[in-house]
């Protein structure tokens, strides 16, 4: 596939152009290692590497067009140089055009926020498939092109991969695509050039401060997604989050709110709540769902609201929602032979941990018995500031806490555990164990648990690996629990 350079340039705003632009471009790359003869190389100023340093290397490999923010002092013959204000922005727009602007050929809905993105995007995908539509999904856990799964590498892929996946969805006949929109992808303009028909905001709590540095920067990145939505789109926001209305205050899109606590355009009231599911009152209807807790009631209202805004009947949407099941690694409940419940959840922020634990407390209080044992850790080489906060929330809402390894990456696991313990008083540490080996930590929790208790294994959810010193070792919390339960049954 090739396109005329002048046609490509009509899609972006250039500051300055030098050289012959009347030529064919055979491929687009921002990684100089992948450049071939006839490639357009886009020099990206990344967080660790500056693509401008690889312009000469790209030309040596055959690049005939260079998009950059800073014009090189020395220029090669027969190479076109295009200066732009933002290479990231240009890359998104060019990637969309190169793939035939696929987002314009489907209804595309983006979901952003700290917690709940995966659940909402995935449930929308399954809901619209239940309605009989071909759909695509871009999520942290897995990507889907209609019914075909594609491994996910990032919450939001780079623009070339992203638009390539969207183009495959169009080719497969997909009418809708639902995607998670990370704060990184907004800030790095990976979503530039996409045509969104709707946006959903879940919530905003401390996360990714290793990248954004401040909560304000993190908020601004999320908000920009809604600021950029077109007037034809809808923007659904969480009325229960203090930043909910801030997110949509400058959007041109049609605004709607959802809530599990107060008056909103899409409101749910919990009538019954157990580990097996809950009963919700939505408008004039009552519906039984295989989900637990206020945070899931909130997620479901976001899904319900988006479906209604996309033209689906309210009652029929509730009927279809009643047939859905929790997303892999999101409040998945396993029942032990010993009579206690184990919940596996991806909760890896203080707020997410609180949401899961308070939900567990609500269920246990309705039974009037049972203790909570929490197994949790924190990731290495990430925001260290949230580590003591994670420990504090775990202790506040649990009867016993076992702090263990998550994905230590290149850090010493004991150092991460010590950072978490530093947030606790001596009295709070009386109900805390530190067990570095995650499998042994889960085993210890299962040995402690009595009939009627509930264990939370938090932080990894759907992940089937543990990253240690740059190597991913197979590890899955659900598999470990299943193995322990099997041993219980054989005794």
Q: State the helix count.
A: 16
Which CATH first-tier class of the largest domain would you pick?
Alpha Beta
Q: What portion of residues belong to β-strands?
A: 15-25%
Main sheet: which strands, in order across?
A: 11-10-9-12-8-13-14-15-16-17-18
Q: How many domains?
A: 3
Straight-line N-to-C gap: 63 Å
Main β sheet profile = 11 strands, mixed
Say which CATH homologous superfamily of the largest domain is assigned.
Answer: Mur-like, catalytic domain
Pick out the low-confidence regions.
none
Portion in helices = 25-40%
CATH topology of the largest domain: UDP-N-acetylmuramoyl-L-alanine:D-glutamate ligase
- Secondary-structure content class: alpha/beta
Characterize the overall form.
Answer: globular
Structure summary, number of beta strands: 26
Q: What is the CATH architecture annotation of the largest domain?
A: 3-Layer(aba) Sandwich
Rg (C-alpha, Å): 24 Å
Mean pLDDT: 93
